[in-house]
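Q: What would this chain look like folded?
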Amino acid sequence: MHEEPWDRTPIEPQSVDAPLSTAAVFLVVTIADGDDAADRAREVVSDIGSLVRAVGFRDLNAHLSCNVGIGSDAWDRFGQAERPAQLRPFFEVRGPVHTAPSTPGDLLFHIRAERPDLCFELERLLLDKLGDSVTVADEVHGFRYLDSRDLLGFVDGTENPTGASMSRAALVGEEDAAFSGGSYVVVQKYLHDLTAWSAIPTELQEKIIGRTKFDNVELEEQPGERKSHKSLNTITDANGVEHDILRDNMPFGRPGQAEFGTYFIGYARELWVIEEMLRHMFVGDPVGSYDRILDVSTAVTGSTYFVPSNDVLEGLGD
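A: My prediction, written as structure tokens:
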């Protein structure tokens, strides 16, 4: 029987495009050895929607959501017949001064809500269901800081695409039809030396970032001037076409432990775009002219995942 376009079930992405939330949890876990552990993890992630609904119904206005990302090794262990075309491990990026390390991670849970208690409850129930099939590799609780600023004092996420542009930047299309509606995601935890940053004059901070600090106005760079963080993260292909990603970074910190930072999370239709951003930041463009933000911001984790559409995610349980 011939299938007309209007007969097809629309592909439902996970909540990649959810708006910036008040609170977030970034949970990275590794799966224990053995088929039983992989099977248990696969069953839990395929039914994540029921957990989200069980917690989220208590306050629908809190917009609780959870994106599940699956790493390259975990995808293979889940025994799927097909594989996302660009899914690969995060490779260390070693520059002349700074390094973006690659750290363990099989599954990523990006939990968001307007209430931190709902994030907590979902994470608690999730880990209880996963049990000893996983080990927590990293856990970060993020928060919205002032008027969407990072802890360096600058507005974060200004260049995020919106509307139809968001889908083009973040969601896989017909180029990999079996996984359309999915997204590649890279996460990194950066620790900031706020004392060193505060010692830098505001004018120089603005040149490093590429925007004014107070009113978030983009600065024009002069020919021959060292590239800013903004410029290094602007990626164009060989045809001069600019490629965006969708960021949902969050500040985090424990003042009593003198630990402060930004949790970077970038969703992309094409993984190479984020990889090129990191190469520019750590190696430099030109080589050696690395991102000066790295002098006060150290990457301590790095891992890559694929966030499948809800259809594919639920199908993992079959």
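The chain is about 25% helix and 25% strand.
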